[in-house]
Amino acid sequence: PAMDYAGLAEAAAEKMELYRRDPGGWRGCRHTSEVSVSWRPSAEFAGNVYRGEGIVPASPRDVWECIKPVAGGRRTKWDQNVKDFEVVETISDTVSVCRTTTPSAFMRVISPREFVDVVLMKQYEDGTMLSAATNVEHPLCPPQPNFVRGFNYPCGCFCVPLPGEPRRTQLLSFFQTDLGGCLPQTVVDSFFPASIAGFYSNLTKAVKALEV
């Protein structure tokens, strides 16, 4: 049976809204000048869901320009965890199936990964932009040699305008990823908080470069 990509994408967006409204049970694990990262056990798989929250010194439009999941987008240029990003199938104006590959990480302890996700982009009345995703299978994306297939469970980023502060944006992000393979849990638990801190730091540099 064909996968209901639009329905899965919508469900991932609903999960993001639930996470955003649910402040309970998060435990802080890393704090930098750009982001505070917390986690709690995932209800989706046997790992954790991570929450990053920070203020990016740029307009919501510029932040969105840097993170939006589109072919030829900026993300492959600044996000050290994204090597390649391709749209496999466009389902609608706001939903697409995408394949992302990641380089080896953590001093090569983590080998290159590939992820196939359905991605939804959504704008709210207050100007907040959401990109939400979750893993799917797609006939055009069989597992590739040289990559370990990882799985993103419902994850996403909210770009939230701050009233009266047009050049600052709250970025709230949720990551819950099964990296696949046989990684020790200690490696996974140290990788994500560091990776999220790097994401915010590199994004902050990327939006500054946009303004030049």
UniProtKB/TrEMBL annotation:
Keyword terms of this UniProt record: Lipid transport, Lipid-binding, Transport
Domain START stretches: 1-212
Molecular function per GO: cholesterol binding; cholesterol transfer activity
Superkingdom to which the source organism belongs: Eukaryota
One GO term of the biological process aspect: cholesterol import
Protein purpose: May be involved in the intracellular transport of sterols or other lipids. May bind cholesterol or other sterols.
UniProt protein name: STAR5 protein
Protein species of origin: Pelecanoides urinatrix
Gene giving rise to this polypeptide: Stard5
